[in-house]
Amino acid sequence: MKSDIDIARKANLKNIEEIAKQIGISDEFLEPFGKYIAKVDTKILKTLENKKDGKLILVTAMTPTPAGEGKTTTSIGLSMALNKIGKKSIVTLREPSLGPVFGIKGGAAGGGYSQVLPMENINLHFTGDIHAVSAAHNLLSAVIDAHIKFGNELGIDPAKIYWKRTMDMNDRALRQIVVGLGGSANGYPREDGFIITAASEIMAILCLAKDITDLKERISNIVVAQSYDKKLIKVKDLKIQGAMAALLRDAIKPNLVQTIENTPAFIHGGPFANIAHGTNSIIATKMALKLADYVVTEAGFAADLGAEKFLDFVAPTAGYDVNVVVIVATIKALKYHGGLKKNELDKENVEAMIKGLENLKTHIENLKKYNVPVVVTLNVFNTDTQKELEEFSKHCETPHALVYAFEKGGEGAIDLANLVLENIVENQYTPLIKNDMSLEEKIKILAKEIYRARDVIYTDTAKSKLRFLKKHGYDTLPVIIAKTQSSISDDPKKINAPKDYDFTIRNFELSAGAGFVVALAGDIMRMPGLSKIPNAVNIDIDEDGNIVGLS
Amino acid sequence: MKSDIDIARKANLKNIEEIAKQIGISDEFLEPFGKYIAKVDTKILKTLENKKDGKLILVTAMTPTPAGEGKTTTSIGLSMALNKIGKKSIVTLREPSLGPVFGIKGGAAGGGYSQVLPMENINLHFTGDIHAVSAAHNLLSAVIDAHIKFGNELGIDPAKIYWKRTMDMNDRALRQIVVGLGGSANGYPREDGFIITAASEIMAILCLAKDITDLKERISNIVVAQSYDKKLIKVKDLKIQGAMAALLRDAIKPNLVQTIENTPAFIHGGPFANIAHGTNSIIATKMALKLADYVVTEAGFAADLGAEKFLDFVAPTAGYDVNVVVIVATIKALKYHGGLKKNELDKENVEAMIKGLENLKTHIENLKKYNVPVVVTLNVFNTDTQKELEEFSKHCETPHALVYAFEKGGEGAIDLANLVLENIVENQYTPLIKNDMSLEEKIKILAKEIYRARDVIYTDTAKSKLRFLKKHGYDTLPVIIAKTQSSISDDPKKINAPKDYDFTIRNFELSAGAGFVVALAGDIMRMPGLSKIPNAVNIDIDEDGNIVGLS
Questions:
Q1: Which CATH topology does B130-247 take?
Q2: Where in the sequence of chain B do the CATH 3.10.410.10 domains occur?
Q3: Which residues bind ATP (chains A, B) (predicted)?
């Protein structure tokens, strides 16, 4: 098998102007970044207002396992397959963070014959959006500490600063730090920490904002600290929402690239799917819906995290209709949830596979509660046996198709594309969560209907934070559940289809600018670390500027 | 007077492809970033090998004062004036850092009718080079701490880690910090700090590297720490020079933009002029020398800092001939060095002005020691009186011209352009410092000949560090003196033309990758702070994406 980068280098890329023209974007709205990447001016949206939206296809997955499910690869393959059978399709994805690129994953631009290109650029810096988010985020941090140093007019309590600093890197040493040491010239000592940029509220805001004015408004409402007299301090009190928005002027414009088969792809924004909503920007998907008949978009992690947030929060915020949901499964993941260990997944085991179907079934049942048609796609690996594939088809009662997108590109996803087209509906999707419910009501519904818990338990910390949120009028905001991606429950060890357990909310975090409250149902890592031998040691560049070690 | 941004918006910019064509860069080497910015592929240099270099005009200044001297504005104006009188000229400048943009200055793209454009982009993110430097720098930090956490095979002494983290922000709270708190999952606690990206050794390396291979080689030689058994730990021991260089793949390519009058400008790299060498990248200037007959380049701070480093280190490293040096003076700065306070500078005072000429004279004498012709240019402000200007001309014995570049653009610098052309020489420039001298010899020559000191004193710390450098074979590297920019001496309070004092070296720092040793002759700020009311509160963006508050 050729490496991703070898396959990528052999691709026949078209100039980005040509890709843009293909979907009706004229040069006046195009800001090229080299020959194969362009930002699209959001002003184009005004000219498309009266155009009907295309159909939205949401790709999600069963509960992930250490083997990897290939959701991005499937999304890319599906979009290419739709184009192959004569439909006009765009795929919309999140931007990769540098942390995982240098950590373990090595990249996040699909794989094999289903990649978005140029993968080196997409994985490293791309059009600088994530760096812009970091800069806007850290400007706020610097202004907070400067404000306190120079008289602290707002009376900010240094022990009640909620706004941490950020960096797009896996750097565990920055999780908990003390800043401002060395005497009064450097400010005052206080505890602080860094989170990875994908976990920044600014990243969430960038992906939710309608336009630059909405972006600025959301930024101005970020709650950064509490004052000595218990008032909430917002960005607007520090008067730097304009500067922060200015830093994001270009970052708000969607990035257009292409797949290995020249299917247009918007790759824009990259919020985490635990601490935030986990899908690419609303602006990019809205733009895609105006420019294509079928938009394939991917939600982070499994259906209980990414798809739930998409269906209960992102789609209602954006005003999307969701026309069909594709859920990615693999034989390996099914066997894992059926009880096998990671090193046993390569061996045939029909029984474990059938047992693990409970996980997939739970996600399918969950998704049907949103009144959307669900189709299953099995991402076939070369270790899957014929018998396993046959037994899967026999036992999976939901419409399903096998995909070979990694190996064959769009060609390998044509069955899936046809199945998707057969199942598309309009105006049926309904969120499970109603906006005007209280936080507790929302959490209760999710815990019972999606996470299959018996009851919800709140820790004392969570109860106290809930009172705080009520006091300040934030208790009917949308809720983002932050929990493990390794289980449908709040316990990473509970594989397959856990039920009848107590779902515990440990704390809440307010993202008043983004417009949601995060309910923490587990330890959420907001700053990953590098491993003993990080992928960075595999990455190199030759004298002609060719990069190796990304995948 | 119109604001810089108002003037900028009225400019008739040409598409960057057209600007490129003007100097013979064909599309194949051009990577556009939007309509008005492009990176130029360094592969073009191979095709130009046999072309004769143009003439190099170095712009420097007398000792700066709080009033500002307008060196960038003059450089831009001079290059435009050369084009106006029929010469083919390019200006090469450093990239602005975000720190000063949000701090005090508000921008660094020239001013009035002598600006490089689009100034909003140049001031905010530009083509992402500085972010790329930050990412490469911080990847190294994360790898060092991960290495120690996972067994510390190299035996790195956590108390002897020289490599701090970096951020492109004025953030004093990060100057001195403790990282790795919170238990062993987060590593181990140790003292650390952040420096601003312009002060990063990676930035210096980017601006000195011949090509990507040289860049990688220099990175691999960076000394990051000492081991328990007193060995020096280099990047190559951690094996991530490839990943760091990969992050800089695009950053190494010069950025082409244009001035308000469509003069081509390379803006590339932004190292500090105290802790590093303070001029734009060698690659950009070399490219400009192949593409134009006259290249105007600017060195940071005053002639004793930027020009000295250019003439003793950058030009010998790059192999430049330096054909003429322009030294920028202002009536205000002369009066300041003549003893007036900042608030007295607007009033006519010929006597103070004449007294302050000593500062200018010292710099001129210094520069002549390099066998280069020197011309003086007086940057005229509207507060300067006719009498002051006349008396200046009477007392300044060096060839000089008045410039009005801020007010009139290239037209206002034609006298200067003609004077420059008259004074250009070839193959006369000679560095003052010889490469094979010891660090002490080099410092002694600079202290006596340039800083006009009686003697050089070394603190005990400096002496001990000198022994360390000798032990490890770094004692004949080029020397970069880090000292105050406010005086020719090492004491910011000594204005005008100090002499016969003791020049004190407090410490040394090794930049083994960049290939120099920094001799610290003062407190050098490597992480600035924001002021009480930072410029960030003046910056805003409207619904059409227009940014205000930059200048």
A1: Domain 2, N(10)-formyltetrahydrofolate synthetase (3.30.1510)
A2: 439-521
A3: 65-72
The single-letter DSSP state of residue A109 is: S
**A179–B173 C-beta distance less than 8 A:** yes
Domain spanning A439-521: CATH 3.10.410.10: yes
Nearest chain B CA: its distance from A209 CA (Å) = 13
Q: Which residues in chain B have their CB less than 8 angstroms from residue A541's CB? A: 212, 216, 242, 245-246, 249
Class of domain B4-127+251-423: alpha beta
**Which value does ipTM take for this structure?**
0.96
User: Minimal Cα–Cα distance from B229 to chain A, Å?
Assistant: 22
Determine the pLDDT at residue A107: 66
Using a CB-CB cut-off of 8 Å, the residues of chain B touching A530 are: 142-143, 146
Residue A69 annotated as binding? yes
Strand positions, DSSP E, A68-196: 89-93, 110-111, 114-117, 156-161, 165-167, 177-179, 190-192, 194-196
The dihedrals phi and psi of A277, each to the nearest 5 degrees, come to -90, -15
3-state secondary structure of B196: strand
Cα angle A178, A183, A188 (rounded to 5 degrees) comes to: 50
A427: Cβ contacts below 8 Å, ≥ 6 apart: A321
Give the three-class secondary structure for A278. coil
- Residues near B492 by Cβ (< 8 Å), separated by ≥ 6? B484, B486, B522
CA distance B372 to B73: 23
Question: How many interface pairs between A and B have CB atoms less than 8 angstroms apart?
Answer: 239
- Is the pTM higher than 0.90? The answer reads yes
pLDDT exceeding 70 applies to what percent of chain A? 99
Contact A246 B98 (CB under 8 A): no
Q: Find, in chain A, the residue whose alpha carbon is nearest to that of B36.
A: A31
Nearest CA distance, A197 vs chain B (angstrom): 12
The contacts of residue B390 (CB under 8 Å, 6+ apart) are: none
Residue A67 assigned ligand-binding role: yes
